Amino acid sequence: xxxxxxxxxxxxxxxxxxMDHFLTSQSLPYMVYIIPNDDTFPADNSTYHxxxxxxxxxxxIRKDQALETTVETALAGFYFTKQEGYLDxxxxxxVTYQFAL
Length: 101
Hints:
With 101 residues, this protein is an alpha+beta fold. It has helices spanning 3-11, 65-74, and strands at 17-19, 30-43, 46-60, 81-87, 92-100.
């Protein structure tokens, strides 16, 4: 899957999404996705395959299980990990999904 296909997959949720950041201010809820690092597979003393690690961050005013289910349904084809918490300084809730593309 390419990053463009990932963007299409996430956009199909109906939640505004952008890679890294939005160029304009957004109302909650919204998502951004970033590539914090790569997962490399070595073979014969060289890098055989590189898989980007994707981090999808879902921001909302409060914990919203229906919203999370929407995102998790879109990501059903991936093995992902999930972390969540409240951002006091921003006064918003963030759920982070991480997986290899």
